[in-house]
Amino acid sequence: MIDILRKLEPRKFAEREYINYELDEVNEIIFIEKGEYDIGYEVNKMEKFKLRMGDNSVIGAFNICFNKRQIFIHRTYKECFGFSIRKSNWKEIMDEFPEFFAILKRKVLHEYITKIRKPLMGFKDKDIIHYD
């Protein structure tokens, strides 16, 4: 267990700092302990931020668990503090505890679809129609 904790790296993001852009390859999972960040997308070269997340949330878990690129933009709203774990370290831990990670992957998928992807795609579809 101590080896797992040693793989966590402290992270700090300034206010209004970009964490991920659309189509970025995700190389780390970021655990936000304190702070707020916005999630959005780009339509007609304009960024639209529609969701605000904060304390005790995670960025990049879906992308790393399912080997997917980022489809949204993440930008801090307030200064954010937390920890991250690199993709290679996460994969090592997944291989070490496959039963646990099978359950975790299902939870990550459900959370991502219901709390992030579905609402944001709804907003994006409306914005696309509006700008057409």
Order of helices and strands: HEEEEEEHEEHH
Radius of gyration: 15 Å
If strands are numbered along the chain, what order do they take across the biggest sheet?
A: 1-8-3-6
Characterize the biggest β-sheet: 4 strands, antiparallel
CATH homologous superfamily placement: Jelly Rolls
Q: What's the number of extended β-strand segments? A: 8
Short description:
The protein has a single domain (2-131), classed as Jelly Rolls, CATH 2.60.120. It is 41% helix and 33% strand. It has helices at residues 2-6, 61-65, 87-96, 98-131; strands at 9-13, 18-20, 28-34, 37-43, 46-53, 57-59, 73-76, 80-86.
Describe the SSE topology.
Layout: H1 2-6, E1 9-13, E2 18-20, E3 28-34, E4 37-43, E5 46-53, E6 57-59, H2 61-65, E7 73-76, E8 80-86, H3 87-96, H4 98-131
Characterize the structure shown.
This protein has 132 residues and is α+β, with helices and mostly antiparallel strands. The chain has a single domain (2-131), classed as Jelly Rolls (Sandwich), CATH 2.60.120.10. It contains 4 helices and 8 strands; from the N terminus they run αββββββαββαα. The chain has helices spanning 2-6, 61-65, 87-96, 98-131; strands at 9-13, 18-20, 28-34, 37-43, 46-53, 57-59, 73-76, 80-86. It has a 4-stranded antiparallel β-sheet with strand order 1-8-3-6. Strands 2-7-4-5 form a 4-stranded antiparallel β-sheet. The protein is globular, with a radius of gyration of 15 Å. It starts with a helix and ends with a helix.
